[in-house]
Amino acid sequence: MTVADPADFPKAFAEAWHRRDGHRIGALFAEDADFVNVTGLWWRNRAAISKAHDYALKSFFRETTLKPGVTTTRQLGPDHAIVQCRFTLSGQKAPDGGTAGTRQTILTFVLHRTENGWQAVAAQNTDVVPGKETHVNTGSLTAVDYRDT
Question: Which of 4, 50, 64, 73 is the most exposed place for a label (fewest CB within 10 A)?
Answer without folding.
Answer: 4
